[in-house]
Write a structure and sequence with these properties.
The chain has 776 residues and is of the alpha/beta class. Helix content is 44%, strand content 16%. Strand 23 and strand 24 (774-775) form a beta hairpin.
């Protein structure tokens, strides 16, 4: 089992999945829900700024990729150049002053072509590129505006904040001429709550009343519904002195900066510069991967920090929400704010929380701690949960999930350490591929266990029958070791590489607590073991009858002194029938009264001579040996020669008859287990269907047969193993072939009869009608 799981881990690397915990491969097969991030997992994580809104005016940004030399910023009405508009420059100027992303030209490592590459946060990259289109660069601005303080983005604040000190005049007209300016970017609804003013398109600052704020929020909704990620950018003139003490806590400083009175407007709060809307295209194949997940009975839940309408629009594009049937308020999309009725307070009780997660496919404005509670809720309902994450704060949720999935490119080391598997390409499609591979590996383990247990059960049962029936044991210890290492182990490992069946990703996930070997599999193990035993034991008995003329050990060897067997027949080298006879007891052919009853020795002329002529002092055992095993001292030379020739031939006959039968049965068993390995590739499909489409199985069985030839015909090795192929003749090969092929037919016949007992995992039966409804 460990070898199969390890091999599965190795093959998953080719699909951009790195398994950190080998047991997670098995768990993947039972995954019933995937809770996934959006940015970089469902989407490419390569955001491009395409729209802006400043003071009631809309703007379009053209260009492609991260190249700042292509494209420009234009007014939506009229299409005129807007690179000089005060509001646009203020919005992008504060945006890059509140960023840590750099944009540089670098040579592509594969082609050597120079490309523009952003280094930093993927959300900041489109802002930096757009700013460069109007000749605003952070490196230039920092010479005039020194950054003196920074509060990084956090999932609880939903904003990032920096403070700059004006050193000299800059290209930005909205910053303080002297003193300090705060620059803030983040979630629109959070920033809007802190704003008391807003900037018009020409850079004029006006009070922000409720009506204007509603217009801005309506614009946020409008942009979000286009699957655009919207950021709000704001600023505040703080004056010569900072409004906080350097020893204060970060949250206290943050609150004081937001609540500071603006030295420009005289109002408490921030000034909204504008809105920036970026598009993050979905990854290639994500739509199909989500649909494949549903077909496999795996539910997909998107958990994102985006605004609810943005999350809904993206979820519709990638099939997580059905665009034809989804309606707002139907419970499929939830703002994580409802998980805690009081902001940053206690979560809903378990019953209400579970009711929400039971139907929700999109969680918006989520925080890392929300992920943990969502996982707990889903697990309470019996879901086997795979959770993705990349940040330090995601670690508890990754640790709690049944399968923690960390991002290999953007993920932190803490997240990777808490995970069970890592996506080396950060791609959602890789998760679905891993689930499919996990199901295939688990099915292979079931086949492997069924195969190995059936053949081992048969091997033990065969030896047991030999012992209880007093038949010579058909196998020697080294032969048993050969079978385990060569005939049993390689094919069982090959079953771990078995290709998936066409219904693999159409069945519902198996229960996590389901045992590897199901009750109907136990019936198959016992039945196939009995079939294998009957075929091979029958082959051995036929061989014993043909070669030894008897079945039990005592009958074959003639008992202690050979008196129970008078004659033994041996086969010629290339004969199909026995041709050479040997006399096994001297009492049978010399000096014996033909009318004597063998049951009584009183009339036995040889016995009388032994008793009368042997010197005194000879024990009864010695008398018996003279009668049955050695010639008596009074025998003539002719009698002794006849005795020795007869006894030598008889001994050879007895020894070779048993080893010939063992060799025949051994060959039959090796062939039969090869057939059984191919039969084990499916519980319900017959062996002649796609027989050789598992290269690993072909190699394993082929290696077993090649090793068998070496064991049979390598001088010295065959003797050590107790195999004598030159003595079994064509007849032995024939009955070995018949016995092994009978096993194949028997196993396939049981497969035909046993189909009625198979309890396969039910099909998920997911399909969408033309109108978007689900048919089952």
């Amino acid at each position: 089992v460990t070898i199969s799981l390890s091999a599965g881990c190795s093959s998953m690397v080719e699909q951009n999945v790195l398994m950190r915990k080998i047991a997670a491969v098995e768990t993947l097969g039972s995954a019933s829900i995937i809770c996934t991030d959006k940015t970089g997992t469902l989407t490419e994580g390569k955001m491009t700024l395409i729209k802006m809104h400043v003071g009631g005016s809309d703007y379009d940004i053209s260009g492609k990729g991260f190249d700042p030399t292509t494209g420009k910023i234009t007014r939506k009405e009229g299409g005129s150049d807007a690179s000089g508009d005060g509001g646009v420059r203020a919005t992008l100027g504060s945006a890059i002053l509140c960023s840590n992303t750099k944009l540089n030209q670098e040579a592509d490592p594969d082609t050597g072509v120079m490309k523009w590459i952003p280094r930093g946060n993927s959300s900041e990259a489109p802002l930096v590129v757009a700013a460069a289109k109007i000749a605003l660069k952070l490196e230039t601005l920092e010479k005039c505006l020194e950054r003196v303080y920074e509060i990084p983005f956090s999932s609880s604040r939903k904003m990032m904040l920096t403070v700059t000190k004006t050193l000299k005049s800059s290209d930005l007209g909205h910053v303080a001429k002297e003193g300090h300016t705060a620059h803030v970017k983040g979630a629109p609804n959070y920033i809007m709550d802190e704003c008391s003013s807003y900037m018009t398109a020409d850079g004029t600052v006006l009070p922000l009343d409720a009506e204007t704020k509603k217009k801005f929020m309506d614009k946020v909704d409008e942009l979000s519904e286009q699957a655009l990620r919207v950021l709000a950018i704001a600023c505040n003139h703080l004056g010569q002195e900072l409004p906080f003490d350097s020893e204060e806590e970060t949250d206290a400083k943050f609150g004081k900066i937001l609540g500071a009175t603006c030295t420009l407007t005289g109002r408490v709060g921030l000034t909204l510069c504008g809105l920036a809307a970026s598009i993050d295209p979905e990854r290639d194949g994500v739509k199909d991967a989500v649909l494949q997940s549903r077909t496999a009975g795996v539910r997909v839940v998107m958990i994102t920090g985006d605004y609810l309408k943005t999350a809904i629009a993206i979820a519709k594009n990638i099939n997580i929400l059905n665009p034809r049937t989804f309606k707002e308020g139907n419970g499929e999309a939830t703002d994580c704010g409802v998980l805690r009725p009081v902001r940053d307070g206690e979560y809903l009780n378990n019953a209400d929380f579970d009711k929400l997660t039971r139907t929700t496919s999109v969680f918006a404005r989520a925080k890392p701690e929300d992920k943990l509670e969502i996982v707990k809720s889903l697990q309470r309902q019996g879901w086997v949960c795979a959770m993705t994450g990349d940040g330090v704060n995601d670690a508890p949720a990754l640790q709690r999930a049944d399968i923690g999935v960390a991002m290999g490119l953007e993920g932190t080391e803490v997240a990777k350490g808490a995970s069970d598997m890592i996506l080396t390409d950060d791609n959602f499609c890789s998760i679905v591929s891993a689930i499919e591979k996990g199901r295939i590996i688990y099915a292979g383990i079931q086949k492997f266990v069924s195969f190995i247990m059936s053949v081992h059960f048969a091997e033990v049962l065969q030896i047991f029958l030999c012992i209880v029936t007093s038949v010579p044991v058909m196998r020697q210890p080294l032969q048993i070791l050969f079978l385990i290492l060569v005939t049993d182990l390689p094919p069982s490992i090959a079953l771990g590489f078995e290709p998936g069946e066409h219904l693999t990703m159409k069945r519902a996930p198996r229960p996590k607590t389901q045992p590897v070997v199901l009750p109907w599999m136990w019936r198959g193990i016992v039945a196939n073991g009995i079939i294998l035993t009957i075929c091979i034991f029958s082959t051995y008995m036929v061989a014993l009858s043909a070669y030894a003329g008897a079945f039990t050990s005592d009958t074959i060897t003639g008992g202690v002194y050979g008196n129970e067997r008078e004659r033994c027949t041996i086969w010629g080298r290339n004969d199909w029938a026995p041709t050479l006879d040997f006399t096994c007891s001297i009492a049978s052919n010399i000096l014996k009264d033909p009318d004597c009853n063998p049951e009584t020795q009183s009339c036995d002329y040889l016995w009388q001579r032994i008793v009368n002529e042997v010197p005194d002092g000879v024990t009864q055992d010695q008398l018996d040996r003279m009668y049955y095993v050695t010639p008596p001292p009074f025998a003539t030379d002719a009698e002794i020669d006849q005795f020795q020739r007869g006894i030598a031939g008889c001994k050879q006959c007895i020894d070779t008859s048993i080893r010939r039968a063992r060799t025949t049965a051994f060959i039959a068993l090796v062939w039969a287990e090869g057939f059984r390995a191919y039969c084990s590739r499916s519980f319900d499909t017959f062996v002649w269907v796609n027989t050789f489409n598992n290269p690993s199985m072909n190699k394993a069985v082929g290696m077993a047969q090649f090793t068998l030839v070496l064991a049979l015909f390598t001088p010295g090795l065959n003797t050590v193993l107790g195999l004598y192929p030159y003595e079994i003749h064509y007849f032995g090969v024939f009955i070995a072939a018949v016995g092994s092929f009978s096993c194949l037919l028997g196993c396939e016949f049981y497969k035909y009869l046993g189909k009625q007992f198979i309890e396969e995992t039910k099909l998920a039966n997911y399909a969408e009608n033309a109108d978007g409804t689900v048919s089952k």
